[in-house]
Amino acid sequence: LRGVLPGRTGAAASSGPSGDDDAPADRYADFARSALGRKVVPGLGLPDPAPLRRDAPGAPLAPGPVLVTGLVPVGGGDAAPRDAGAAAAAAVAAAGARVLLPGDDDGTERLGGVVVDATAARSPADLVGLVGALAPRLRRLARGAHVVVLGLDPDRLPDGADAATRVAQRALEGFTRSLGKEVGGGRTVQLVLLSGGGAAGLGGALRFLLSGRSAFVSGQVVRLADPVGDLPDDDLARGSRPLEGRTALVTGAARGIGAATAQLLAARGARVVLADVPAAADVLAATAREVGGEPFVLDVTSDLAPDRLGERADAVGGLDVVVHNAGITRDRRLRNMRPDAFASVLEVNVAAPLRLTEHLLATGRLHRGGRVVGVSSLAGIAGNDGQTSYAASKAGVIGLVDALAPRAAEVGATVNAVAPGFVETRMTAAVPALNRQLGRRLSSLGQGGLPVDVAEVVAWFAEPASAAVNGQVLRVCGQNLLGA
Ligand code: NAD
């Protein structure tokens, strides 16, 4: 599996903000999606890289009605969702999708999504209710449908919860991660954990997880905590531009994932400052023009970077969103590693983001309601042959999230990170062909992601409605089989 996760090539900039213009063709996916492939692939149990349902302007939340159900007791009985399920149903309806409750489901319609409220599970035996809730409905899931299981955060159960409750709620994780590997057809499955019994922030999470914005996220656990500030009442009114009135800065934004992120944040209404190194100044200017943002030449590792960032933040009236996307690799096995190469990877990928975030927090330049987003990697979770420096730096980004999220919460801000898996960029074009195939296929969705898939997660963290999402690391990897 050596090199299955992408490393950096040092290649020149790609030609567009999507960053995937030069990504190699996925010929297997082309075949599997052909008429012949659709007949052959399922029968042989081959990977199924079904087209993903990505977001598009005016797209509905889900490709059909969304069933919201509770656990179904063995032998039948009341399957009505509990409080969390009722909150979910209200949020889904508010987002414009038709809600089906168990009593209204005549078993005939194709489902665009399912939300299962499992918060009532108090013992392992209660989990059998998941079978009744989901098994008969899986065949009716539309292609690209998303399933969300609601549970209680086992580490933050209400006072007086017993061990059996904790066991049952913890068990939901294995259930969801396994179901994600079964559903196929570009479908996804996630677990949303509520804490303290409240459902604050659930609406924003469901609008992301049921929609095409989370197309390349599957088998993941999202924890909702106490919101760090007020959740916006007017969020739905903002429609497709939830970041209107906010200012975002993205580092490493000249190309690739950073450029796609800048583009998406701008499309969602943000004023965007795009930062990159002096050597990339020309491409940076072109990308900034293309996305309607402002170029800012900045090497995040320079001694002056905190002060220059501060000045720039002042010039734009303070920052609401900071995305630490700039990253490098200097891949070598440890026995051949030079200390200066190892140091440079740590410096760009984690030391600079830490220094800059601490500076922004200490000087009050991150507005109340601010959002800091780090970019980790699957390598930081699973490790990768030849990537001790990179994996250390990307695991360090997770440490940054853990360390700074509580501090940010004190000023009404959040710190989260995205952990991409195999993303189709110029970088992955340089991965040897066999490893490229493994990187794509060894995942539940059977394909690589696009830069916009990572950008979508960043944009979701950035939204005002994500105030209950803090201290999280969300993998966007098509449920890659590597790592936890
Ligand atoms: P990329 O190499 O295409 O872009 C990285 C950008 O960061 C470049 O424009 C580069 O000039 C800039 N940069 C590097 N050092 C900088 C510095 N000191 N100051 C400012 N800017 C600097 O890479 P990408 O594929 O778009 O990756 C973006 C992020 O996503 C990185 O942090 C990377 O580690 C991470 N990531 C990528 C993948 C993938 O599959 N492409 C997977 C996991 C994680």
UniProtKB/TrEMBL annotation:
The residue ranges of the Ketoreductase domain are 246-426
Tree of life domain: Bacteria
Protein family: Belongs to the short-chain dehydrogenases/reductases (SDR) family.
Supply the name of the protein. Answer: 3-oxoacyl-[acyl-carrier protein] reductase
Q: Where is this region: Disordered?
A: 1-27, 40-61
InterPro entries from the xrefs? KR_dom, NAD(P)-bd_dom_sf, Sc_DH/Rdtase_CS, SDR_fam
One GO term in the molecular function aspect is: oxidoreductase activity, acting on the CH-OH group of donors, NAD or NADP as acceptor
Question: What organism is the protein native to?
Answer: Pseudokineococcus lusitanus
